[in-house]
Amino acid sequence: MPSVDYRHQFAYIADASSRGKSFPGLVVRIHSPQNDGLGVDVVGHVDTGAEMSVFPGEFASLIGLELLQGEPLVLNPTVGRSHDARLHDVIISHDELGRYRLKVAFMLDEVRRALLGRDFLNVLQIGLRERYQEFYVTATP
């Protein structure tokens, strides 16, 4: 069985909007690949059920992207209605974990949270310890 030596440990983040519940999350910075100077810090929920990372649409303009110029995409959650989004290339960076170029979805309708999906998890190894409200991360070998 493989063994992973994790290099980073993070505590879960308390979600103020849900009466003290917490979640595995990271504060990441998203940038446009064309302008590294334009970036926005985002609290991203680590979501192993999300195929790709998803951000509120208003973040696209904050980093210099034209939201509607992205490739159209319909996101179909396990439960609930589908959502229209646009795909854009971005750089996702974290002070300890590095920088990664990914194609992510920006939602056209209002969403409450940003999701760091399996595209982001593909470049990292992650271990969750729900009981201890912490998780561990290292770069994918």
Structure description:
Helices cover 6% and strands 51% of the residues. With 141 residues, it is mostly beta strands. It has one domain (8-139): Cathepsin D, subunit A, domain 1. Strands 4, 5, 6, 7, 8, 9 and 10 form a 7-stranded mixed β-sheet that branches. A 3-stranded antiparallel β-sheet has the order 1-12-11, with no helix packed on it. Strand 7 (71-75) and strand 8 (83-94) form a beta hairpin. The two termini are 16 Å apart. The model has no long low-confidence stretch (mean pLDDT 92).
Order of helices and strands: EEEEEEHEEEEHEE
Radius of gyration (CA) equals: 15 Å
Shape: globular
Q: Class, according to the CATH hierarchy?
A: Mainly Beta
CATH topology, by name, is Cathepsin D, subunit A, domain 1
How far the N terminus sits from the C terminus, by CA atoms, comes to: 16 Å
The number of helical runs is 2
- Report the helical percentage: under 10%
Keywords:
141 residues, mainly beta, Cathepsin D, subunit A, domain 1, 7-stranded mixed beta sheet, 3-stranded antiparallel beta sheet, 6% helix
